[in-house]
Amino acid sequence: MLTLESERTSTLDYSNLNISIQETFAAIDRFEWQAVDEIMQMREQQLYRKAGYKSFEQYCQAELSAWGGYRRINQLLGAKKVIDASGELGKHIKNERQARSLLRLVKEPEKLKQAVVIALEGNSSPSESDFASAANIVVPQLPRKKVQEPMVSKTAKVTVSSQSHPRYGESGVIDAEAPNAWQQIVTFADGEKLLINNEDLNAKSVPFPNERTFPPEYSEAIAQIKEQHQQELERLSQELRIGLQTEATTRAEAQVQEQIQSLQNLYKQQREQNVQLQRRLDEMESLRQLETENQQLRQRIQDLENAVEQRPLQQWGNTMTQQATKVLNKQVKQALEKTIDLRLLAVEPPKENATECLRLMGMALKNLASAMNNTQALEAAAIILGSEPTPSAIAYRAEQLEMLPQAVSDIRQVLAQPECTWQDYWAVAQEYKVIKQDYWGELTTQETDLITALQNTSTEPDSIGIGSIVAHADPYRTLYVEKGEVVEDLGEELVVAWDCWKEQSKKTDRYFRDELRFWQGENQ
Question: Does the pTM of the predicted model rise above 0.85?
Answer without folding.
Answer: no
